[in-house]
Amino acid sequence: FKIWRNWVKGARQSKWMRKRRTLRIEADLAAHTKGSAFLRWRLNILASKFVKAEEHKSSLMYQLGNANNQFTLLCFKAERYLVTIDDLREQLTSSTTYLTQEKQKNYDASALLNVEHNNKMKEVANTVSDLAAMSQQWM
User: Fold this and answer.
1) How far apart are CA 120 and CA 105, in angstroms?
2) At CA 100, angle to CA 97 and CA 102, rounded to 5?
3) For 129, how many CA atoms within 13 A lie in the half-sphere containing its CB?
């Protein structure tokens, strides 16, 4: 009986130890399964964020390229405007010089015409006074 009792006791302890070990393994497995599921979920989220970040980076690079092209075009346009402004300043300076010369020529011509007019008026006045003197002589 003792042998059987020891064997039953040993079998019970063995069964209890196997059950405890199985429960411990199942608990560890459940914890690891939850942990791995959480890590897989987190990995998926990070991968999704990475893809979105890559798309955003690509979009920003495209926008930066467009902005760079627009800036370059604006620089060329501004340079062209500056050249045009310089040309217009030169034209304005030459026009101003030409107009000043023409003004001086016209002023000189006007002064000459005034002198000639005054001389003719003096001649006419002298002629009128001579005619008046002659008319008084005849009267």
Assistant:
1) 22
2) 110
3) 6
Q: What is the pTM of this model?
A: 0.46
Q: How far apart are CA 9 and CA 103, in angstroms?
A: 135
What pLDDT, on a 0 to 100 scale, did the predictor assign at position 56?
Answer: 96
Which stretches of the chain drop beneath a pLDDT of 50?
A: none
Helices (H) and strands (E) in the chain, counts: 1, 0
- Measured CA distances, 53 to 32, 50, 59 (Å): 30, 5, 10
Structure-block tokens of residue 111: 């002064």
pLDDT at 139: 63
The residue type found at 104 is Q
Integer CA distances (angstroms), 133 to 53, 103, 125, in order: 114, 44, 12
